[in-house]
Specification:
Elements (H helix, E strand, L loop, with lengths): L1 E3 L6 E4 L6 E4 L2 H7 L4 E7 L3 E5 L4 E5 L10 E5 L8 E2 L5 E5 L11 E5 L27 H6 L1
Parallel strand pairs: 3-10
Antiparallel strand pairs: 1-2, 2-5, 3-4, 4-9, 6-7, 8-9
Length: 146
């Protein structure tokens, strides 16, 4: 599986099967991705390999709102496109699904943070909806690391 930023300066590959896609409607994801939601999946850190432009990856750690961890956003320093996010202290990388060329082989699992979704885009699919984050027992990162 291959992906890249908008300008192509940063590129990466992923080996193996990722988690299902999670669709997050929280305000931070909406602002970071510039859309009504962020569609992301997770892989183990060792499954992600930068193939170009790793030195152009920029990180923004937003302040903690309620409890750790802080919200992290990675983006291309040239074009500003979102990029895979390596989670500090975890063996996990969060991958924006829209960066992948072709079919990633996984499908959306659920919507999270629907309580704060934008009012102008109704959710019309039959996926489960969580008003807040998914319950810890259903957390995709936890399942990946098991």
């Amino acid at each position: 599986m291959k992906g890249r930023c908008l300008c192509g300066a940063v590129a990466f590959e992923i080996e193996g099967t990722p988690t299902p896609i999670e669709i997050c409607h929280c305000s931070r994801c909406r602002r970071a991705y510039g859309g009504a939601f962020a569609a992301t999946f997770y892989v183990r850190r060792a499954q992600l390999r930068w193939t170009a432009g790793e030195d152009r990856v920029r990180i923004y750690d937003a302040p903690i709102l309620r409890e750790p961890p802080a919200y992290r956003h990675a983006f291309c320093g040239d074009c500003g496109a979102p990029l895979p996010i390596v989670k500090d202290g975890l063996d996990v990388a969060e991958i924006p699904a829209g960066l992948i060329a072709g079919d990633p082989g996984v499908r959306p699992l659920r919507h999270i943070h629907t309580r704060v979704r934008v009012p102008w885009l109704p959710i019309t699919d039959d996926l489960p909806q969580c008003e807040e984050a998914a319950p810890l027992a259903d957390n995709l990162i936890v399942k990946l690391l098991e």
